[in-house]
């Protein structure tokens, strides 16, 4: 997929900027102007900037339960432990208490991710130096096994909301790039895997339209099944990637964003569209179409693939049972202004 690596990695930064709006809120201007030869340097640069900002605000701390032997009462006395100490003729008390500590899961995730980047040979020394200096403030924070992190259980609130972008980036790195060596140690792969890139690609397109195209409303809405009797037991949820709706509400474009190594499937040297993708977008469009009843309206669908370096790239439009279904590609190896122009052209074509 990569033709010009530096341009592609630069566009990864732009995709992250839309997916994580924090990158557009100042402090990351230097990162935006740098040229990166690999993903590791890009991620290291963003983390170095983000952690530096967090250190200025102070590391998030939360109360953690401690139990230890002490000479004087602290918190509440743990009777079984204290009795054991007495039997062993130790003149100490076992106490339980809550301590405000930076050694919590959010800081542990940051440190674990940074330590993996520091061990990677492809991270340039300038980024390693910044990260090493910042890790001095994490001396009381433990590293953890990255495979044990329950990302869905992490909750953000007012006191730690500034960590949201950093933790999301760590998740992209640890879930998308983590490999296990023969010795059981962890290291980072040279690239983010296809599944995580697909999620970033979806999020980028959705947030781009939400920010840059005020003439439409951009959501990731669910589509109800058009049921004759209202009974939908065990039917799967129809969750769109991107749904663009005109301000009047009578024109809808449903986009399924796809990031694949191959944009078509091949059998006996014949290239065809991924059948499952086409069936899915057609189902979304026809069920959405029924919501309008007899009202004047227009519902269309689009499969928007990230372009590969394959010779054949889909660029087709079909009229199916009264609805337009398009298949397009978005070339992430081009200058970002060209990517933006293509995304804008999609809105112009369908909503003009």
TrEMBL record:
Listed GO MF terms: endonuclease activity; hydrolase activity
Database matches in InterPro entries? McrC, McrC_bac
Going by the UniProt record, its keywords in alphabetical order are: Endonuclease, Hydrolase, Nuclease
Specify whether Nuclease is a keyword of the entry. yes
Q: What EC number(s) is this enzyme filed under?
A: 3.1.21.-
- The source's superkingdom equals Bacteria
A Pfam family reported for this protein in Swiss-Prot or TrEMBL:
McrBC
KW Chloroplast (keyword) present? no
This chain's protein is named: 5-methylcytosine-specific restriction endonuclease system specificity protein McrC
Which source organism?
A: Anaeromassilibacillus senegalensis
Q: Which gene encodes it?
A: mcrC
